Amino acid sequence: MRTQVAIIGAGPAGLMLGRLLERAGIEAVIIERRSADYVLGRIRAGVLEQSTVELLARAGVDERLKTEGLVHDGVEISFDGDMHRIDFSGLIGRHVTVYGQTEVTRDLMEARTSSGASSIYEAEDVSIHDFDGARARVRYRKDGVTHEIACDFIAGCDGFHGVTRASVPKKALQLFERVYHFGWLGVLVDKPPVAEELIYAHHERGFALCSMRSPSRSRYYVQVDADEKVAAWSDERFWDELRRRLNPEVAERLETGPSIEKSIAPLRSFVAEPVRFGRLFLAGDAAHIVPPTGAKGLNMAMHDVRLLADALIQHYGDKSDAGIDSYSAKVLARTWKTERFSWWMTSLLHVFPTTGAFGRRIQRAEFDYLKSSRAAATCLAENYTGLPD
Ligand code: FAD
Ligand code: DHB
Description:
By secondary structure, this protein is an alpha+beta fold. It is 38% helix and 30% strand. It has twelve helices and 19 strands. It has helices at 12-23, 36-41, 50-58, 63-68, 88-92, 101-115, 235-245, 248-253, 297-317, 322-349, 356-372, 374-385, and strands spanning 2-8, 28-31, 47-48, 70-72, 74-79, 82-87, 96-98, 119-120, 124-129, 136-142, 145-156, 174-189, 199-202, 208-214, 217-225, 259-273, 276-277, 280-282, 288-289. Strand 10 and strand 11 form a beta hairpin. The model has no long low-confidence stretch (mean pLDDT 97). Bound molecules: flavin-adenine dinucleotide and 3,4-dihydroxybenzoic acid. Flavin-adenine dinucleotide is lined by residues 8-14, 31-34, 39, 44-45, 101, 123, 126, 157-159, 161-163, 265, 284-285, 292, 295-298, 301.
């Protein structure tokens, strides 16, 4: 089999890239090791930047987003129960849209199914070859049969634990990493959100986040130790812990119920440099990870594949490799800005083993500065709603 672009991974990065290429008349195959249902069952991000919403519109998959997406003009930051609102629209005239990653994935999958574009799910032992040569190849096994696809380019959209970055010779890569000693325990519940906007809360017991998926479905998180087990957290224990970390009036309003999903996500900052090796391009979590505090992971993935799709469209359409040649530098420039913001939000809002009494006073001073300084609030608003290219 032969195609122009082989896309490894059917997460949001792979599916969006496939869609943008398909609309530009470039042939692509998506190869995913899990089933479509498994991919759809993963509950992850929930906040879309304006540029991501615009990309979903460009891809022609924003019908449901337009009616179901919740536009948020600000967020609340809470420090030991003291609340401060960051007014995005008042400060910079921008907003974010709350719409779950699961829904983005579903919309992209449905568009792909109805257009008949080729996707291979449950592909085993995916491997990539000769991407530094004249013609790249992808091999995988399906139902016991080995298949090979020859292609012009490979897009590594296979997440942090994928095969594409791992196939690059070690000496060609520089890796930067910070692993945090804590994770986020997340709960999804069919109850109305506790507030109209998201609440990011710092408390001496740890971070908490109140988010949502719809007017009747909420998503809540609490910081837990990295080695915590989900089984140790009954719903009751989760709700008690969440309440303790929130402003008492907010806690009073919290509507609880049986969780419909509960999982722990580890926190990590990670960057691979560069993100292009000959005919292989890394995009999304395969190239970089941010801790979820700034709600950036999905938005970064969308940014990467927009650049990559435009570079490939330029390659096939204008016969110019300018976009391909600048892909890595452009991705990395934006990645480090977003890494900085996500690290800063994480540092302000979490309790670290080394925080101590001095560190807590510094965190408080940072929060007070955010409250009193228009420049500090504007900085948060610009980064949270999405920096321009
Ligand atoms: P992924 O969504 O990881 O997709 C990669 C795909 O590649 C997967 O479908 C995987 O099955 C497939 N794959 C992997 N290996 C192979 C292989 N060898 N062969 C073929 N296919 C393969 N971000 C936020 O902003 N907020 C959050 O709350 C948040 N929570 C998260 C929770 C978890 C547990 C994780 C892991 C991430 C979370 N993120 C969050 C980050 C956000 O979800 C990601 O940034 C986003 O999913 C990146 O999309 P992607 O397509 O690059 O990678
Ligand atoms: C959600 C996740 C985030 O990481 C975040 O910063 C905000 C919201 C969510 O799952 O709703």
